[in-house]
Design brief:
The chain is α+β, with helices and mostly antiparallel strands. The chain is built from four helices and ten strands; from the N terminus they run βββαβαβββββαβα. It has helices at 36-49, 66-84, 135-147, 161-180, and strands spanning 5-11, 15-22, 29-32, 52-59, 93-100, 103-110, 116-121, 127-128, 131-132, 150-157. Strand 8 and strand 9 form a beta hairpin. The chain is globular.
Length: 196
């Protein structure tokens, strides 16, 4: 079976991001974004999806975190889309319900080629240290658009924001692990249209 791996780079006047993504990995990661909270979330994504992620990002963090966070989503989504190739033999759908102490998140994914994001977060906290948690929605939107996936994120409850977002990224990881997984009974693309 073909190994599903991709390398992407995005360089603009605002950011320079390199990623190597291996869908058939073991959850190994080397992540440096300049944003410790985002590093932690992406490490969780790698570890629990079993997708190897090597990512290095340099951005205009002295101006704002927005460009860097959004562009990381773009590059990761691009790498995922290219690594999936024609998407033959994949499960296509994935879902997960993940608790983290008092917090609970539900994520569902469809790798059917139609990007759409539904994003609902119960936690009302706006920041963790100086990281604006509203930027996670920007990351998710860029990620799902470039990966051509339908992504539904619902952080259902939980007061502690770290727990809330940790449950989201772990649930995303588990849903992706299921959706990207191969089903030996599926020989073609998992769509009645005959292509994704």
């Amino acid at each position: 079976m073909k190994h599903r791996k991709n390398r992407q780079r995005r360089k603009t006047r605002e950011t320079d991001i390199r990623v190597v993504l291996d869908l058939d990995g073991t959850g190994q990661y080397a992540v440096e974004t300049g944003l410790p909270f985002l590093n932690h979330m992406l490490e969780l994504l790698s570890k629990h999806s079993l997708v190897d992620i090597k990512l290095e990002a340099h951005g205009d963090l002295a101006v704002d975190y927005h460009h860097t966070v959004e562009d990381i989503g773009i590059v990761l989504g691009d790498a995922l889309d290219k690594a999936l190739g024609d998407r033959k033999g994949i499960n296509r759908y994935g879902w997960s319900l993940v608790p983290m102490d008092e917090a609970l998140a539900r994520v569902a994914v469809d790798l059917g080629g139609r990007p759409y994001l539904v994003y609902q977060i119960a936690s009302r906290r706006k920041k963790i240290l100086d990281f604006d948690l509203r930027l996670i929605e920007e990351f998710m939107r860029a990620f799902c658009t470039q990966a051509r996936m339908n992504l539904h994120v619902a952080q259902l409850y939980g007061k502690e924001p770290h727990h809330a977002f940790e449950s989201v990224f772990k649930a995303l990881a588990r849903a992706l692990r299921m959706a990207c997984g191969r089903d030996p009974r599926v020989k073609d693309v998992p769509s009645s249209k005959g292509r994704i």
